[in-house]
């Protein structure tokens, strides 16, 4: 197992397939984009599949989520999904995407074995979408959501970040859209993972503020917290249910004590936390000829050093040097 010194066991593997993205969200990267990782530094499809296999068959990984950057930009995505689905024991397989291009590839991914998707969508207003992402692609994202639902990649979940004085007033409208279409909405507090390092606690829209805005239009009742487990979202029944809305309050209501996640970056580094400032290299040993057993042992050693929490609320907290697009969510 991938266990740490605090008794937590990592069973959820987040695999970043690329640091590239076709949006330029203001809370993630600058308008001109970033210097992408050189191709030779990225894990090949076969290397990704090998490390996932080791994680699943030797280290107790039960869920694999593909992330980016934007993972739909990875040409080998369908074959990587298919190889993951063929593992025994078969892990649950999810994808976090901005939804652009999902309308074309959703049936292929479902056939390959993908179970469900999370789509990032912060607004259903075209002008606000362009202001936030610097691209006029809202229709493409909405088409991707519909295609995912039609392909059976359910439950379709929507991840939303509210930015003060930009889209924070749109929370009820976004929930109304998701309720109408049967999507499960999760609001995420903005985290200090932007490439520009401009995150400020004072401008972050908190979980309490999100719930207050939603409560102006809906009656929210806390769901059974006993069933939350390691899930990051705190769930609330909407108008008595059965629909729910979630809030992922990484900053103001941290859930590090129940974390079961470990991350593999697109260039083959193990990260124990989104906010970790240290990584453990698997790509180097893999390419130097390390055996599966040796790679597994390196992975165990990396997870064993996991810190008790992300430390955002500690005065000494320093934002990681890598932005979210290079880490994978």
UniProtKB/TrEMBL annotation:
Query: Which residue ranges traverse the bilayer?
Result: none
Q: Which PROSITE patterns match?
A: MOAA_NIFB_PQQE, RADICAL_SAM
Q: Which cofactor does it need?
A: [4Fe-4S] cluster
Entry keyword set = 4Fe-4S, GTP-binding, Hydrolase, Iron, Iron-sulfur, Lyase, Metal-binding, Molybdenum cofactor biosynthesis, Nucleotide-binding, S-adenosyl-L-methionine
Binding positions ([4Fe-4S] cluster 2): 256, 259, 273
- Tell me any Pfam family this protein matches: Mob_synth_C
**Which positions are annotated as binding S-adenosyl-L-methionine?**
27, 69, 120, 191
- The answer on whether this UniProt entry bears the keyword Lyase reads yes
Question: Has UniProt tagged this entry with the keyword Hydrolase?
Answer: yes
Catalytic function, reaction form: GTP + AH2 + S-adenosyl-L-methionine = (8S)-3',8-cyclo-7,8-dihydroguanosine 5'-triphosphate + 5'-deoxyadenosine + L-methionine + A + H(+)
- Fetch the SMART domains from UniProt: Elp3
Superkingdom assignment: Bacteria
Cofactor: record remark: Binds 2 [4Fe-4S] clusters. Binds 1 [4Fe-4S] cluster coordinated with 3 cysteines and an exchangeable S-adenosyl-L-methionine and 1 [4Fe-4S] cluster coordinated with 3 cysteines and the GTP-derived substrate.
Binding positions for GTP? Answer: 14, 65, 96, 157, 261-263
GO biological process annotation, one example: Mo-molybdopterin cofactor biosynthetic process
How it assembles, according to the record, is: Monomer and homodimer.
Relate the protein's function as given in its record.
Catalyzes the cyclization of GTP to (8S)-3',8-cyclo-7,8-dihydroguanosine 5'-triphosphate.
- Which family would the database say this protein is a member of? Belongs to the radical SAM superfamily. MoaA family.
Q: What is this protein called?
A: GTP 3',8-cyclase
Supply the source organism for this entry. Answer: Thermobifida fusca (strain YX)
């Amino acid at each position: 197992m991938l266990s740490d010194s605090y008794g937590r066991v990592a069973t959820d593997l987040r695999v970043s397939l690329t640091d590239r993205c076709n949006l330029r969200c203001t809370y993630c990267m600058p308008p001109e984009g970033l210097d992408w990782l050189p191709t030779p530094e990225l894990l090949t499809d076969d290397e990704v599949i090998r490390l996932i296999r080791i994680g699943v068959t030797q280290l107790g990984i039960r869920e694999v989520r593909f992330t980016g950057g934007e993972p739909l930009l990875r040409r080998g995505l369908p074959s990587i999904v298919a190889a993951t689905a063929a593992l025994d024991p078969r892990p649950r397989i999810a994808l976090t995407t901005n939804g652009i291009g999902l309308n074309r590839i959703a049936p292929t991914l479902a056939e390959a074995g993908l179970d469900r998707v999370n789509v990032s969508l912060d607004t259903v207003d075209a002008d606000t979408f362009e202001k936030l992402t610097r691209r006029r692609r809202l229709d493409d994202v909405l088409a991707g959501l519909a295609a995912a639902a039609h392909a059976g990649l359910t439950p379709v979940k929507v991840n939303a970040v509210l930015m003060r004085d930009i889209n924070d007033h749109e929370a009820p409208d976004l929930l109304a859209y998701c309720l109408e279409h049967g999507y499960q909405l999760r609001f995420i507090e903005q985290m200090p993972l932007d490439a520009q390092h401009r995150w400020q606690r004072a401008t972050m829209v908190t979980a309490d503020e999100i719930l207050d805005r939603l409560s102006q239009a809906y009656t929210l009742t806390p769901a059974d917290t006993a069933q939350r487990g390691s899930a990051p979202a705190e769930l609330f029944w909407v108008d008595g249910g059965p629909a729910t809305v979630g809030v992922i309050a990484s900053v103001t209501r941290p859930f590090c004590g129940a974390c079961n996640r470990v991350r593999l970056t697109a260039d083959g580094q193990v990260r124990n936390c989104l906010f970790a400032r240290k990584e453990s290299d698997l790509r180097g040993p893999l390419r130097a000829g390390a055996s599966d057993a040796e790679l597994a042992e390196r992975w165990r050693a990396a997870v064993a050093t996991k810190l008790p929490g992300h430390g955002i609320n500690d005065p000494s907290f320093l934002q990681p040097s890598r932005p979210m697009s290079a880490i994978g969510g």
